Fold:
Amino acid sequence: MGADGESPGPSPAEGEGFSVRRVVWSATLLATVGALVELLLRKSLPAAASLTVAAAVAIINFRSLEGLLQRVLQPGRPRFDRQSLLTIGRRLALFAGGFAALLIVPGVDFVAVALGLSTLVVALIVEGLRRPGAGGG
Structure:
């Protein structure tokens, strides 16, 4: 109870939770820094492009999955309908197309692709560690 007899509300830090926007921003920042490092230190345009495209595919898939989970896993009646199936199909097609491009396009740097896909994972870990007590577990 506060001094005025009312229970205090959550502090600004407690009101913040998991932020998809922060995850996407962090992953984009990591991908940009990684591409610049590839360009400046290794002087490799194909490696920078590989890292950037892989990070973009990972971020797009993450955003799509986030929207799908909000649509299907909701407190009321879940809406697992044709739109949900189309979203899953588009995600799989994008991911399969990315892997097919790895096999078809010459000069793809597979280490840079792995780093590009890792940018999202690192951004998710950083967001999860930002508030260790939030979200249960």
